[in-house]
Amino acid sequence: MYISNEGLLVILFVGLVAGWLAGKIVRGAGFGLIGDIVIGICGALVASLLFPKLGVRLGTGLVSEIVYSAIGAVILLLVVRLVRGGGRL
C-alpha cells in the first residue's frame, strides 16, 4: 500500500485533532502531542471497525473523519482509563 506525503499529513492531522478532542472530552487523559496523535489514529481504527458493524454512518469528508476518530479515541481512552486507573471512569 502506498500513501502519498499529502495523505500522510492528512492522517497525522486527523489523528492530532481527534486525539486532542478526545483528551478534552475525557478530562485529564491527554498523552502529549505524539501520544494524542497515536490515540487519534488508533481511535480511527477502532471507529472504522466498530461503526460499520453497528450501522452508524456520519457522512463523508474531513470533518466526519475527525468526528469518527474522536469518538473512537474517546472509547479507547475510556478503556485505557479502566485498565490503568483501577476501574474509575
UniProtKB/TrEMBL annotation:
It is found in: Cell membrane. The chain crosses the membrane at residues 6-23, 30-51, 66-83. It holds the Pfam family Transgly_assoc. It is a multi-pass membrane protein. Keywords: Cell membrane, Membrane, Transmembrane, Transmembrane helix. Belongs to the UPF0410 family. This is GlsB/YeaQ/YmgE family stress response membrane protein.
